Amino acid sequence: MRELSLVICWLGVLQSVLLSLYFISSSKENYKKLFLAIVLLMIAIRAAKSTLYVFSTFQPIYILNIGFAAHAALAPALYFFVRSLKEGFTFKQRHILQFIPATLLLALCTTLTLEGFWYTGGYTVLLFYTLIYLVLTWKYFSSESRQSLLPEQVKWIGLLLIAFSVFLLSYFTNYVMGWTSYLSGPLLYSILIYGIGFIVLKYNRLFSFEVKRKYQNVNLPKEEMEMYTARIQRAYAEQRIFLNPDFSLSALSKSVNIPVHILSYLFSEHLKKSFIQLTNQYRIEEAKKLLVDPAKKHLSISGIAYEAGFNSLTSFNTAFKKIVKVTPSEFQKMR
Question: Are residue 137 and residue 224 in the same domain, yes or no?
Fold first, then answer.
């Protein structure tokens, strides 16, 4: 059984590295593929460290610390992978700051010891640090990123995130809670990664992230575009469909009876706004009315956000300040 576990772990590491190289090879000017490649590579390094720790009698301290550094880099890389799924994402210089902990661990890889650092609180901090990023990742995927994806992409990328989450949480449940064995994460991930590899190869188009390519075969007459556009505008202005917190591109597609790929084309090429931009525009206008409505004085800013269709206060504040140039609280005080 020990030998089988060893083989499974190393096969998982190899498969994760191969998938990482696969995405790196086609990641030019594509943040989504680049961050996914980094996530897969960091998991491979972390799983390799765990495998060596369990099955090898001698592990140089720098090898162990490289594994911990990969663990620290994995969390923000996964977060930025999910953020990059949202249309219009740009990786900025300030985002590099979130990789400072991993960089410091790598720089100190020859000095940090298990007894002197990791077992005296360092490892616990790393696990909670990872947990926080994991919560933010799922929150962002649920509220922002998935709205820019095709329905089938949401399903498969969701499964991908589950596999990554299982791997990361296994270390937390092992060390902090004592619920699982140390190798449970690497073993389960090694099994899942082969399924992921099959999905990536079979459904390659879902992981190409080249949304605009599907527009090449769209050729709508002007009259039809105008008819579809009017239908979209009615759904927003009259049906006020944007007030539903679970509103998505696929939900709009069902409501106006227009295929998702045609909707994407209309937003990009005709309306010159993304689905998120148009939806937030209507939601912010609704929020502005609610903020100055005497009948809504009993509502908090959070309550206003949900009334306007936002499913999180953070996304509301961000969108409001981007469009109105002041925060909701500041806007309310000005009126």
Answer: no
